[in-house]
Design brief:
The chain is of the alpha/beta class. The chain is built from 14 helices and 13 strands. The chain folds into two domains: 248 residues, Aldehyde Dehydrogenase, Chain A, domain 1, CATH 3.40.605.10; 86 residues, Aldehyde Dehydrogenase, Chain A, domain 2 (3-Layer(aba) Sandwich), CATH 3.40.309.10. α9 links the parallel β8 and β9. The protein starts with 6 loop residues before the first helix and ends with a helix.
Length: 369
């Protein structure tokens, strides 16, 4: 979806180190090393605003997922992560948050180029909240405590107690979408690492770049080899292999409802633990006594934030008939003022996340007409 950005001015806005990073084919992170896909395949990542080639990324599939899961299993059972004290783990996790903030401008620029969202929004929201997630979770590493429960056993009253000790689940397979790439990665990675789990992260093929850069920062922070493995690839190959791998103890997925159903089916074969965050059609209900000065901007933000590419976007609006026209007119007027352009420009809204998403929304508009 070309938003008619000026290629020369955009290129000049990208620092040379980032240009060099993008020009270097990106690899998979497996067992602490950056490696090619076993198949040798790569896929192209495009700037959604211009359609231009942004980077080439190794395409992971079932063979790479298998290597990553085995590396995560070794790190969980025999690596330093398994014997590290909670305070040591917490310091490493906190350091990841520090490094995200130190590289905030670079990471926000990657999000603007890869996902399309305005850089200013990515820096203020996505990147900052990603750092905050690691900082917050690092404090929990030393506070995950058990329980001591007295038992009322009639046969021997007072002689038995029960203790509950929380333990890490093990190897966690995580699959994230393209709408909040670095923030979704943080939401998945930070809690799992805090509890002592190891991870194989399958990133969206549309937006793999910020997670790969995050992987570099995590190694710099001191995350041991195999604790975090990052495999870009496609859902039907890498994602399906991860969800069904017998070496994975839990699958955490954010994405569509249809794919969520497939993951539950794949995980059911060996009773993996599963957590799903799926899409919805979130209604906003406006009653006749609503304060329209608050309601109209709120309804605007609910559907237009992140270009409407949110799991909880307010995509349905029910308005009392007595104020219906006022609300519609107010939202329409506000929408006309949205500045649209490339994410590196001073705009309110960038392009859709991919050509496929642009075509999908366009199809909805056509069917509506």
């Amino acid at each position: 979806m070309n938003v008619h950005a000026n290629p020369a001015s955009l290129k000049a806005a990208i620092p040379q180190p980032l240009r060099d990073w993008l020009a270097t084919p990106r690899k998979l992170l497996i067992d602490g090393k950056w490696v090619e896909a076993r198949s040798g395949k790569t896929f192209d990542v495009h700037d959604p605003a211009t359609g231009e080639l942004l980077a080439r990324v190794a395409e992971g599939d079932a063979a790479d997922i298998d290597m990553a899961v085995k590396a995560a299993r070794r790190a969980y059972e025999a690596g330093p992560w398994a014997t590290m004290t909670p305070s040591q783990r917490g310091r490493i996790i906190h350091r990841i948050g520090d490094l995200i903030l130190e590289h905030a401008d670079e990471l926000a620029m990657i999000e603007a180029l890869d996902n399309g969202k305005p850089k200013a929004v990515a820096k203020a929201a996505d990147v900052t909240l990603a750092a905050d997630m690691f900082h917050y979770m690092s404090g929990w590493a030393t506070k995950l405590e058990g329980k001591y429960i007295p038992i009322s056993a009639l046969a021997a009253p007072g002689q038995y107690v029960s203790t509950v000790r929380p333990e890490p689940i093990g190897v966690v397979g995580q699959i994230i979408p393209w709408n909040f790439p670095i923030l979704m990665a943080a939401w998945k990675l930070a809690p799992a690492l805090t509890t002592g789990c190891t991870v194989v992260l399958k990133v969206a093929e549309e937006t793999p770049l910020s997670a790969l850069r995050l992987g570099e920062l995590m190694l710099e922070a001191g995350v041991p080899a195999g604790v975090v493995n990052i495999v870009p690839g496609f859902g039907e190959t890498a994602g399906a292999a991860l969800a069904g791998h017998p070496g994975v103890d839990k699958v955490a997925f954010t994405g569509s409802t249809d794919v969520g159903r497939l993951i539950v089916q794949a995980a059911s074969r060996d009773l993996k633990k599963v957590s799903l965050e799926l899409g919805g059609k979130s209604p906003n209900i406006v009653l006749k006594d609503a304060d329209l000065a608050t309601t109209i901007p709120g309804a605007m933000a609910a559907i237009f934030f992140n270009h409407g590419q949110c799991c909880n976007a307010g995509s349905r609006l029910f308005v009392h008939r007595s104020i219906f026209d006022k609300v519609v007119e107010g939202i329409a007027e506000a929408a006309k003022k949205i500045r649209i352009g490339h994410g590196l420009e001073d705009v309110d809204m960038g392009p859709r996340g991919s050509q496929a998403q642009f075509d999908r929304v366009g199809g909805f508009l056509d069917s509506g007409r």
